[in-house]
Amino acid sequence: xxEYKDEIGRLLEPLVNLTAARIMxxxxxxxxxxxxxxxxxxFSLAPVLKKSPAAIAEELSRKLSGQRGxxxxxxxxxxxxxxxxxxxxxxxxxxxxxILKEKTDFGKTNIGQGRTVVIDYSxxxxxxxxxxxxxxxxxxxHALYLLYQALGYRCIGINHLGDxxxxxxxxxxxxxxxxxxxxxxxxxxxYLFQLYVKFHQLADKEPELEYEARFWFKKLxxxxxxxxxxxxRFRQMSLDNYNQIYDLLGIKFDFFHGESHYNDMLExxxxxxxxxxxxxxxxxxxxxxxxxxxxxxxxxxxxxGATLYITRDLAAAxxxxxxxxxxxxxxxxxxxxxxxxxQLFKVLELLGFEWAQNCFHIPFGLIRFKEGRMSTRExxxxxxxxxxxxxxxxxxxxxxxxxxGLADKxxxxxxxxxxxxxxxxxxxxRIKDIEFDWDKALDFSGETAAYIQYAHARICSILRxxxxxxxxxxxxxxxYLQQEEERALVKILALLPEKxxxxxxxxxxxxxxxxxxxxxxxxxxFYHRCPxxxxxxxxxxxxxxxxxxxxxxxxxxxxxxxxxxxxxx
Length: 569
Ligand code: ARG
Known about the structure:
Largest sheet: 4 strands, parallel
Low-confidence stretches: 372-380
Bound molecules: arginine
Helix content: 40-55%
């Protein structure tokens, strides 16, 4: 759209008292396609010209009547707007040529070149199962990673594992008292979790358990070899388990810097807070008052010397800035930690770090899996692994039914199953709570990944039937695409780059997800109306090019959400 806006900017500049750049900024996309493709609102000219915006629009359209540009074919006034209609042939030619030339790069830009975004996401807590609470962070964080990468940023993905804190004292005590090596090895994470649950059940009756746990955590903090060995083992076992899930999801982190990574930087943070005069003793603990900023105080150190989650986050932020020199740091963490991040960013600011203003909490709502379909275990925990396996199983059943002859059912089932979970999350407004409905998420005709994947597979099948040879663009093809559905589809396809940008900038993968539904829908409308194979040779070629470009947009868009597009399903 830039070139189009540019031409209109230069066209109007001598006619109105505004710079071309300002005109370009003012241009809007009308809500209805019948109103044109770009609209220039005349409101801001009214006070200067002392005429109504409608009269100004009218006058401009008279001046431009009979003219046409490179991209536009007519300009018509409608109320306070001057509406430009793009030349559909030029538009189709430009758009399709560009998509087919750029291929997997279509949608990408390099506006982020030379800048770094650090993304803190997933970040489960060691020795606890990877619960559904962390699904959202994983899926949203990964999509933001891919989106920023597509904008040319250097992305650093960090998994801020919860691998430090008093719970490790509890685990060590529980394992020393009740642990069994064979059971641990059989299913480490679940077993550790059971021990943890047992500890809490008994700690009510036996208060000395808590005491012992504190003792062991203290030993751990002091570097005691036995305590360290337990911790390290539990950590590694959990990590192995999480890595299976990340592998299945195709997610890699640049760093697994958990909370423990910052242990030897905590003293420095505390010293700095004292030097800057923002920390004070309160009942033996060290705190930072945030009352003047309307926030509750932050505790940096307990009276027994133990540090806290936020102390480690302060160290982590400083470390990340010093190591990666980020332009932005994103924390993809549930909305329930809003206060934590407000406090974190405020303390960083009080410490004198100007970059604190480039740190952002990207919150999201809760996810609930619709009852009756998943067995919840003790402690009401749903395991991500089970969610994913269940989704794959259901996808397999559907594919089995719909397409029994399919050669590679397994990879299609994985793509569709995982796509359902991811898209079920990403297509919703991030901040809202989600109720995940299995049947809806896998509905091939609903607003789902499967719907988009199916449109893609359908296109692949048409292309195969047409001979499967690589198609090369030819400029005359554009003139054949005259149906309303064809032109509407081209217009949708052209939007991918701006949707990618908007999704990243607003930290809302849902923008891209909703857009892909529109693409699939646009394709289905087109296909319903316009047969591809068997039409006149030149028309068939033009339509093949159109669907090939559609295929490319679907593949590229899904890839940015971490969703695969199987060629057959
Ligand atoms: N492990 C934490 C939790 O599960 C999330 C960590 C988020 N990242 C951070 N830098 N605080 O609640």
